[in-house]
Write a structure and sequence with these properties.
heterodimer, A: alpha+beta, Rossmann fold, 2 domains, 9 helices, B: 148 residues, alpha/beta, globular
């Protein structure tokens, strides 16, 4: 699980260290910089997936092109480097990007590795490091900035070979974890009745790609359906007419109408939730970044969805990271804490605000009674003014 | 920073039972407490909580909005609202127990559970008993005058 994200000089973030939990929620005003943290992680992921491109290409996230290095470096100071580091238990992996080169570093309790590479970088260089374990066995670690191969330096006993495999797994773990981060951007949903399997990009966010994720995983529809029944009382199914390569996405209301229909004809909120669940249930994905899960959802549904998400985080060991403008969503997660469905340590909340040019992340701890430091005041600023008007209260 | 135990006058005023002016003042108390350094003490599930819940269910828009403001800026705010579980609240000493109405026991128990807490009440007899016991107590008007 990602335990912390460090970002420097990226968009409105000058420097931040944000610790993460199974459920992390960023809330605050529009344009405060909540999504910027997501995008920073996706830039790091882009770099890992394809370093052999000019630096500007790394800022094209697939669903959104952020405009390149010059547009994204903090305060547009081109001499600064953009740094993103992902931390895991005992490991961290990061990159400092400049216009034409990058510093890559990977630190762990076992070994610290770093390398300076040109951009574009074809990952063809090998940087050798040495590691000596507790039994005084020496290993050579060849690292290209992303993947490590490990071999015993002298002896090749079965124990040493086995240790080399374990070390390689440990050294390659952070990069693999970053690769498997997924995102549900604001722009999402299904707008067609049926889909044919489509080629998948590294960040599958288009409706065809996400539909393909559902079609290609026979376990996805039933898993999604269990959750849509919990949230909307509607099941979710796919139907592929015999002899065709097209798949229809369908829902059926369980209690009242019981009329099967196409997902595209159901409420857009149902559509949204299916999209998000299809990402969360991906077997190869542990961490999902979700922008505003509440979009198009009624408050009652938001509450149920928050409970489903809490369950997925705790029982399915998914790490879910949200931005939100919904006090209802935050309140529902806090209610899960109060009801002991989540432990306070499983939830981290940050109020995100702008201080002139900079984004400031303030951790708002959650108590075991579901209280949050600072309350939900930031959602209430406008509403309090309206209540004052209704009551004719002067300041 | 002070810690207050508020009597249910806050809810009577918020409901509008005591007129529009008192309703405005109740709203102001909630908003200004949230913006202050002070805290309130609430026993989870107490009559105070129950009355707040009644407020939340009100079909009167103004009342429901005041309830929402209370909940979002005070009750759920760990910096401003000290929640006590009923099982961990201090017991009343024998003398006090007999001279305070059963319905008000929870207020004084909450006060005794937090060092230096000040009871704010509109109930004169309760106020007299509490002050005679050497505890801090303010009337609603004194409280508004001193802090708002």
């Amino acid at each position: 699980m990602l335990t912390k994200l460090t970002v420097e000089n990226f968009r409105s973030i000058e420097k931040c260290d944000v610790e993460l939990a199974p459920i992390t929620i960023f809330f605050g005003p529009t344009s405060a910089g909540k999504s910027t943290l997501f995008y920073a992680l996706l830039v790091l992921r882009n770099f890992i997936l394809n370093p052999n491109q000019a630096v500007d290409g790394l800022f094209n996230l697939g669903f959104q092109n952020l405009g390149g290095f010059d547009a994204c470096v903090f305060n547009h100071v081109l001499s600064k480097m953009i740094g993103v580091t992902a931390h895991f238990d005992g490991h961290s992996y990061g990159v400092n990007l400049r216009k034409t080169d990058a510093d890559i570093f990977q630190n762990s309790e076992l070994l610290r590795m770093s390398a300076k590479v040109p951009l574009p970088y074809n990952a063809g260089q090998s940087f050798p490091f040495s590691y000596t374990d507790k039994e005084e066995e020496e290993f050579t670690v060849n690292w290209n900035g992303f993947a490590s191969t490990v071999a015993p330096k002298t002896t090749a006993t079965p124990e040493a070979q086995s240790q080399a495999v374990n070390l390689a797994e440990a050294f390659n773990g952070p990069v693999e974890a970053i690769k498997s981060v997924d995102v549900c951007p604001h722009r999402r949903g299904f707008f067609k009745p049926s889909y044919s399997p489509a080629p998948l990009t590294p960040t599958p966010t288009s409706e065809d790609e996400v539909a393909t994720l559902i079609i290609n995983d026979q376990n996805a529809p039933p898993r999604i359906s269990i959750n849509t029944v919990e949230v909307f009382d509607r099941d979710f199914r796919t139907y592929t007419p015999p002899g065709t390569a097209i798949t229809f996405l369908q829902t059926t209301e369980q209690k009242d109408a019981r009329v099967p229909g196409l997902l595209v004809n159901d409420g857009f909120g149902v559509n949204q939730v299916v999209y998000m669940l299809s990402k969360i249930h991906r077997p190869d994905v542990e961490t999902v970044l979700i922008e505003e899960p509440e979009i198009h959802l009624h408050p009652t549904v938001i509450r149920k969805f928050a409970r489903v998400l809490s369950h997925l985080a705790t029982e399915e060991e998914k790490q879910l990271i949200f931005t939100t403008h919904s006090e209802q969503f935050l309140l529902s997660v806090l209610a899960c804490v109060k009801e002991r469905l989540l432990r306070p340590a499983q939830v981290r909340c940050y109020h995100v605000a702008r201080d002139r040019k900079k984004t400031v992340f303030t951790h708002e701890p959650v108590s075991d009674e579901g209280q949050i430091s600072g309350g939900l005041s930031s959602f209430m600023e406008g509403e309090l003014q309206d209540i004052k008007s209704f009551l004719s209260v002067s300041d | 920073m002070a810690v207050f135990v508020l009597n249910e006058w806050l809810w009577a005023d918020s409901f509008g039972d005591n007129g529009a002016e008192r309703q405005k003042e109740a709203f102001n108390v909630i908003v200004k407490l949230a913006a202050s350094e002070h805290q309130i003490v609430v026993i989870v599930g107490s009559r105070f909580d129950e009355k707040a819940w009644k407020l939340c269910k009100s079909t009167n828009t103004n009342v429901a909005k005041i309830a929402k403001a209370y909940f979002n800026v005070l009750r759920i705010n760990s910096n401003r609202c000290l929640l006590l579980k009923s099982e961990s609240v201090a017991e009343l000493p024998e003398g006090l127990s007999e001279s305070i109405k059963d319905d008000d026991h929870y207020l004084v128990r909450a006060q005794l559970s937090v060092n230096g807490a000040v009871l704010v009440t509109t109930d004169e007899p309760l106020r007299n008993v509490v002050m005679q016991a050497g505890l801090n107590c303010l009337s609603r008007d004194e409280f508004l005058l001193a802090h708002f």
